[in-house]
Amino acid sequence: MALTKNELLSRIARFADPTRSDSEVAEEFGLPLRDRDRWDLHRARTNVTRADAARIERILYRPYDWRWLYNDPNLVARPNSRVLDHLRRPNMALLAGRQGEATGPEWDHAWVANCPTDQNVFRRGGATVFPLYLYPDPAGLGLTGTVREPNVDAEAVRHIAASLGLSWSADGSGDLIMTLGPDDLLNYLYSILCSPTYRQRYEEYLGTGFPKVPFTTNLTLFRELVELGRILQGLHTLDRAVVPTPRSRYPVRGNDTVEAGHPTYVAPGSVDPTTGAPAAEGRVYLSSRHPRLGTDAQYFEGVPEGSWRFHVGGFDPLSEWLKDRRGVRLTGADLEHYQYVVEATEQVARVCWAIDAAIDANGGWPVR
């Protein structure tokens, strides 16, 4: 796995280079010659004879952090193809964990993905991946259809649809006037799972098992939550059709490299150690000022404190994303990506409170 395709191809080329010994390769990449999972470095190098760009795919490594994987069975341990192959075609998956109590005071183990994911996308226990659709037998699941099927209990969803006065449609979104589709169902589930009140109200249960979601028979509320869940999914996958144009700024030119000891955050109103004055807006520093070198500190400006503290699955995305790139020179695309994450996390908070407001305006909890 690597941050860029070129970096990954270079690594694979060095790994497969027949002029290098197994010991050299093991030392460079920190690999054992053998392990308990039947890994054998010599056998893997024998089978991987060259770097094949066709094997590179995008995966969700951590929330808001996508990377490139060389998908070769000789190199990937525990590929979970029976599940992840469904995400190699148009799809969306709910990621949920049941060990929220292990990573913070509040359960926050819910996310979505539209591509394969790393096993440890959440800290300490990872996530269980629930694809919305199952494609015809990509990995021996015994599916017999010729088109994708919704990954739901048919009787249960027909009952849910009927309770709302709707008919079940087996693909895509319904019109929520006459029909209900799998996409609507996922949107509703996601809005409930991201509700702050839901997480507080059911805290005891969320720390010990998979989440259980109450369904409403109020069609007006259902429609509102479906729309809010759709927006949340777009914010969490950085869908440019959903995330507004970033308002944060990156005003200082330099080498764009994340220095050791960074990132650091200066909250609005706090004294900025770089300037000695109170910060008008939140800043995330990538580097320090170096007078002898004639370089100024580089930073993102206009980062709300709520975005900096945004937490999911044991991770703080705005901090972790930069920490993982210490010593790396960020590209223009990297800088833009970070600003979109800042904007998305700010919008997420507003949408989550809107979910609670919609529920409160329609009778409150428990949802009926």
Question: How would you describe this protein?
Answer:
With 368 residues, the protein is of the alpha+beta class. A 3-stranded antiparallel sheet has the order 4-3-5, covered by helices on one side. A 3-stranded antiparallel sheet has the order 10-11-12, with no helix packed on it. The two termini are 45 Å apart.
Secondary structure elements and their pairing?
Layout: H1 5-16, H2 22-29, H3 41-47, E1 56-62, E2 65-70, H4 81-84, E3 93-96, E4 110-113, E5 128-131, E6 133-134, E7 149-150, H5 154-163, E8 167-168, E9 179-180, H6 182-193, H7 196-201, H8 203-206, H9 219-236, E10 264-266, E11 283-285, E12 299-301, H10 305-308, H11 317-323, H12 332-361
Parallel strand pairs: 8-9
Antiparallel strand pairs: 1-2, 3-4, 3-5, 6-7, 10-11, 11-12
Helix pairs in contact: 6-9, 9-12
In terms of quaternary structure, the protein is single chain
Low confidence ranges: none
SSE pattern: HHHEEHEEEEEHEEHHHHEEEHHH
What integer is the average pLDDT?
93
Please state the overall shape, judged from the principal axes of the Cα atoms.
Answer: globular
Strand order of the largest sheet: 4-3-5
How helical, in percent, are the residues? 25-40%
What Rg, in angstroms, do the CA atoms define?
Answer: 23 Å
Helix count from the secondary structure assignment:
12
Number of strands: 12
Strand content: 5-15%
| Secondary-structure content class | alpha+beta
Cα(first) to Cα(last) distance is 45 Å
The largest sheet, given as strand count, sense and whether it forms a barrel, is: 3 strands, antiparallel
